[in-house]
Fold this protein.
Amino acid sequence: MKTIELCKTTDVDEGSAIKVDRDDLSLAVFNLNGAYYVMDDVCSHGPGSLSEGYIKGDTIECDFHNGSFNIMTGEVVEPPCIIPQKTYKVVVNGDTVCIEA
């Protein structure tokens, strides 16, 4: 399995997200209580960027249609979204956030 380096742990403030484009992937990297989660950045319902959405607990609300997803699992929490977000296995190597792809 290939490991892709995304960012430094210090790049993502606790309780926030950043967008990272790497290897033809557009990803949202989240920091929830010091744990990192990664999912596709583009909302499965429309052109919204989830890294620019609103974090509420363990959910991210898309700023385009206001649907939301569970940050840890990618599962739909609120419509109008119906297709779950793709998530990635995160590995933190020292101070670097990586995914297995």
About this structure: The longest strand covers residues 25-32. The beta strands are 3-8, 16-22, 25-32, 35-40, 54-56, 59-61, 68-70, 76-78, 87-93, 96-100.
